[in-house]
Amino acid sequence: MRLFTALLGTETNTFSPIPAGFKLYQDFYLVRGGKHTEPYGFFALPLVRFRDRARALGWEVVESLATFAPPATRTLRHVYESYRDEILTDLKNAMPVDVVLLNLHGAMVAEDYDDCEGDLLRRIRDVVGPKVPIGAELDLHCHLTQEMIDASDALVIYKEYPHTDMVPRADELFDIILGKLEGRLRPHQALFDCRTIGLYPTPLEPMASFVKRLKSFEGKDGVLSVSFAHGFPWADVREVGSKMLVITDDRPEEGARLAEQLGREAYDLRLKFEPPWMDLEPGIDRALAISSGKEKDASLPQATGNGPVVIGDVTDNAFGGAPSDSTWVLRALLKRGLKSAAVGCIWDAGAVALAEEVGVGGRLKLRLGGKIGPISGDPLDLDVTVTGLNPDLRDMLGGGELPLGRAAAFRIDSTEIDVVANSLRSPTSSPLAFTRLGIDPMAKQLVVVKAMNHFRDGFAPIARGIVYAASPGCIDVNYRRLNYTKVRRPIWPLDADPWNQGA
Amino acid sequence: MRLFTAMLGTETHSFSPVPAGFKLYHDFYLVRGGKHKEPPDFCAEPLVHFRKRAKAKGWEVVESLATFAQPAAPTLTHVYEAFRDEILDDLKKAMPVDAVLLNLHGAMIAEDYEDCEGDLMQRIRAIIGPKVPMGVELDLHCHLTDEMLQASTAMVIYKEYPHVDILECADKLFDIIADAVEGKTRPHQAMFDCRTIGLYPTTYEPMKGFVARMRAMEGKNGIISLSLGHGFPWGDVKETGTKMLVVTDNKPEEGHRLAEMLGREVYAMRKEIEPPWLDLEPALDRALAISAGKAKDETLAIASGNGPVVIGDVADNAGGGAPSDSTFVLRALLKRGVISAAVGCFWDAGAVALCEEVGVGGRLQLRLGGKVGRVSGDPLDLNVTVLGLIDELTDVMGTGKMPLGRAAAFRIDGTEIDVIANTGRCQTFSPAVFEAFGIDAMAKQLVVVKSMNHFRAGFEPIARGIVYAASPACIDTDYRRVPYKRVRRPIWPLDADPWK
Fold first, then answer.
1. Of B21, B370, B371, which has the smallest distance from its Cβ to A359's Cβ?
2. Residue B422: beta bridge partners?
């Protein structure tokens, strides 16, 4: 047996000011011929798993391009086409293959291609023909399209956000495709459009229970896999929104029925699934109230009494396509006279270079952040002392590694506010981003991380509370304000009652 | 005969927000053992010339560290000490030597060293003893000190600003030191403190005539060399200011007399020799008036009739320690609705990277400049199209090359304003940087260059007029506003009448 694998992905925020060309992919993750190194990159985890499983069965594995870019605006057309064609050429050279397994994102948009994954899957199908099984693992922030379903045999989507289940999902996909290959299974995919736009962290209730409920259907009554595609709100494409996907062993009607049933449940729960967004100032009020013991974070029942309150600077999340250099939150902390905080990571290669120039212990008048566009806010002028330098800072998420580039830590004069700046735009996912620069987040009153929700995985174990603070940055969490032009209507919350429930 | 050479320099702006550590030197110029390129970069020209002259005489040449940093804040103490001690170690290993020739700047300040050159030269003198001739070439923007004078045998300072005579000075210095080595002369140095702070371009009158007069007096009546240390106004040290230096063949009294006479002449004409600084808005008024034919630039003997008016964005000159990313001038042009200009070079590595990401022809919403500190002004948000990308942009100053790093050119939407951003902070010297991108500076109404005065050498031949525009950026040309703490008083213009 011969397996062909590839990875090509990003999560495109069509409203982002960050351009997406070759360098964005090359600088973040680009490996050819399966040359992944340990600890494995976050996005390489499924590929490595596919390879391990295949080799255990004695299969030959042909590994094509594996590349992923931190979210930005539409990928340049020639860049997408070049990577796509590289994969297709590798595939043609590898033919005949018996099976194809891909790790994709599902929300990659290029200039002139609103559905890169649909395009890539269809072209792969054209090469391998109708009988070779094609499976793809997708991020739950995907725009699931009929084109992707028509071109594939099975799509398995992460169930967890933070994405801590990439490897189990890779196994699930491998099992289904193996069943098809061995003639034991005839996977059928049924899709239901929930007609809603949203973002749903899975550690919070009622979403946590909903994930368990999805799993409870799997493995019986011919149901092979149930995936909830949350969708990615910050893309102006027709297929934006939440979808329910049910894979059955050739039971189209039952699959469609279950997809609709669960999809309508998700629609009904949509308001409760959404994180408790707060505007910036109320967000800080809440963080301080938790910090002083006046309020409790019910989402963290095991919360320790002495950790920091962690503020997600959600609108500046690099993994949603934001610059990760906005200054709103830090400016607000300084204005309130707060003295104890760890803040990271601000994408500011210029600031890192100046810190490297003076070295640890060196002092600088630093203009920090606010350097990409109006959504970055104004730069902050700070007097700082350099407290740490790291030539290759790495963070971890879900057992995989995420690169942060060269990094510098600064202490703002007359405070105990420590700030991390880095050279490679990427979100802050765990306390490692601080501890690897000698900053102890446990000792701080507040920790501010430029991330949407992935940080929960790393920070929930130490946090006294978690607050989602929405400053006026790149990723507007009020979907009604997004400048959609292509989205299929009706859809909530752009339309008040897309199902005509009369509610 | 065995000659020892070295270079260690920068022009320190005491108030610059740009720090000066190892990387600043490494990234700009650092060569060991004489491994200079051919043709050599701007700052290595004297060293290569010393070597050429020495080898022609059959001398052995020991070449130590040669490093120079783009001007910035005071160099970190351990960085200065490391480079200095490397030179001293090399010298000890090379002993005995018969002559030492150094290419220094004269306005290098480290955190704990006000006078790096004086310190270095005294330590070299301590190693070689009193008899070995030591010659030093200096930039005219030096803080000339007694320590430098006592430690050296002869110092020769550039006469021209723009510095187009670096090789000529190197040649002259070599002659002086060779004569001293061979016992033909006994150089004596006399210095006079003019008690004034200023900046003096030498390409127009009356400074041009003063330089000619200095040249004419050399080589007669025992006068070996005449130099004017203009001083560097943005270094806050005791010895900031203008000094006259006369090297005679052992004629101390005549030397002192001449130094005082010429020094007092300089003091007397100090206001006339200062460039015609204009505040930003009046400067734009004047540039547009020249462009429209309503005013003429008298400093240009043969002004081009159809070339651009060139505006020096003097306050943001990287060569004086500024960030080279201030937005004051471009913002003012856009506010006035000027639509034809070439502007360079913004030190903005982030902007360059984004342009590289989209490639030539790519469009961007770009936040440009204003990224280093308050003296950078606020960033500008622009819609641009990328015109060109260059991996290694070089400019030309005199006969030497200047590295500007990776660079991108882009056009601002709705205009014919073309802007260059680059990664290696450096002033803009010549139209070559625009030509490299296919931008025709001749076809623009205005050219704005982040440079104090060196740009004259390259732009005079094409300019219809030259305007020095003083925006509120890093290099304040109103010396009364510079927050000096250490300068020796009295001195003009901090004191109205220092000579009473």
1. B21
2. B347, B407
Q: Is the ipTM of this complex over 0.95?
A: no
Say if residues A417 and A393 touch (Cβ distance below 8 Å). no
* Residue A256: C-alpha distances to residues A171, A300, A498, B241 (Å): 24, 36, 20, 86
Q: How many whole angstroms separate alpha carbon B337 and alpha carbon B320?
A: 30
In angstroms, rounded to a whole number, what is the distance separating the alpha carbons of residues A347 and A352? 9
**Residue A449, token pair as written in the block:** 């991380």
- B376–A378 CB contact, under 8 Å: no
- Contact, B341 vs B449, CB < 8 A? no
**DSSP bridge partners of A66:** A7, A31
CB contacts, 8 Å: B379 with chain A: 370-371, 379
Structural contact between residues B482 and B15, judged by C-beta atoms closer than 8 angstroms = yes
The alpha-carbon gap from A96 to the nearest alpha carbon of chain B, in Å, equals 36
Closest residue by Cα to residue A347 from A425, A280, A295, A234? A425
Pairwise CA distance, residues A119 & A88, whole Å: 11
Give the gap in angstroms from C-alpha A484 to the nearest C-alpha of chain B: 19
* Sequence-ordered list of residues with C-beta below 8 angstroms from that of A435, at least 6 positions apart, any chain: A441
CB-based contact B198:B240 (threshold 8 Å): no
pLDDT < 70 stretches in chain A: 503
Give the DSSP letter string of A34-76. T---SSPBGGGHHHHHHHHHHHHTT-EEEEEEEEE--S-SPBP
Query: Pick from B205, B185, B168, B236: which is nearest to B12 by CA?
Result: B236
Helices then strands (H, E): number in chain A?
Answer: 13, 18
Checking if the pLDDT of B451 tops 80, the result is yes
The CA distance from B315 to A323, in Å, is 30
Pure H helices in A95-165: 116-128, 146-151
- Report chain A's C-alpha Rg in angstroms: 23
Q: What is the pLDDT of residues B56-100, one digit of tens each?
A: 999 999 999 999 999 999 999 999 999 999 999 999 999 999 999
Q: How far apart are CA A333 and CA A309, in angstroms?
A: 13
Residue located via tokens 């395009």: A119
- For CA atoms B467, B471, B473, B476, the dihedral sign is positive
Q: With bands split at pLDDT 50, 70 and 90, how would you rate the model's confidence at B301? A: confident
HEC per residue, A436-475: CCCCCHHHCCEEEECCCCCHHHHHCCCCCEEEEEECCCCC
Given a cut of 70, is residue B304 above it in pLDDT? no
Residue B394, pLDDT above cutoff 80: yes
What pLDDT was estimated at residue B396? 87
In this structure, which amino acid lies at residue B146?
Answer: D
Predicted model pTM: 0.92
Rounded to an integer, what distance in angstroms lies between the CA atom of residue B184 and that of residue B182?
A: 6
On chain A, the residues whose CB falls within 8 A of the CB of B371 are 350, 367, 371, 379
User: Which tokens in the block code for residue B162?
Assistant: 């723009």
| Beta carbons within 8 Å of B262's beta carbon, 6+ residues apart | B192, B214, B226, B228, B244, B246
